[in-house]
Amino acid sequence: MQVAAQYEHVPLLPEETAILKTIYNKRFTFIIAVYIGLIGMGNKFCGPYLLESFSGRMDHEEYVSLHTTDQKLGVSPFQMILIDTIFIEGPIITTFFIFFFGRVFPYRRDIRSGVKERVPYTIVRKEYFPLTNEYYVALDDPDYMHHKIDEATYNQVNEGDNMYLSRAIHSKYVFEINGRFTIM
């Protein structure tokens, strides 16, 4: 069993909390809008097909004239709700919870905790691009490998040195340190 590495915990700065709140609000609004749209489209377009397959009594003319009437199909309202929930809304709501708790909720947990962790990374190589006059360091983390830095920091660090990056605990969002780092 592996023990999780213990990193130094530091309080979040107000601007970092604002960044996390912005990300959380945008993602929350987007995921709610998408899933409300998916449920609406599923009920509108897929519901009649499901009713047809379960009742077996509908031809093309009846399908064209069918909106939400269940009297033509001979299906009880309970059966309609059950079919709709199992085959349309159930999978949509399940994926909603998976995405919400995997991609959105960790930002809220970070905002409430008010703590970030300082993670040490080893500088694998330094890169300078003279045509664009940009400086980068490659770190030993495969998720955030290249970081753009300024010239003073580039001249200050060497390959093999440790560089500390601030990262949110739950969402793993990497913050910029004094405006130096930009994730590519």
Description:
With 184 residues, the protein is of the alpha+beta class. It has two domains: 13-113; 115-168. It has four helices and five strands. Strands 1, 2, 3, 4 and 5 form a five-stranded antiparallel sheet that branches. The longest helix is centred in the N-terminal third of the chain and has 42 residues, at 14-55. The model is unreliable at 178-184 (pLDDT under 50).
List the keywords:
single chain; 184 residues; alpha+beta; 5 strands; disordered C terminus
Low-pLDDT runs:
178-184
Ends distance: 33 Å
Helix content: 40-55%
Element string (H = helix, E = strand): EHHHEEEHE
Structural class: alpha+beta
Biggest sheet statistics:
5 strands, antiparallel
Q: Tell me the fraction of residues in β-strands, as a range.
A: 15-25%
Overall pLDDT, averaged?
Answer: 80
Task: Write the topology of this structure.
Blueprint: E1 8-11, H1 14-55, H2 60-65, H3 77-113, E2 115-129, E3 134-139, E4 146-149, H4 151-156, E5 162-168
Helix pairs in contact: 1-3
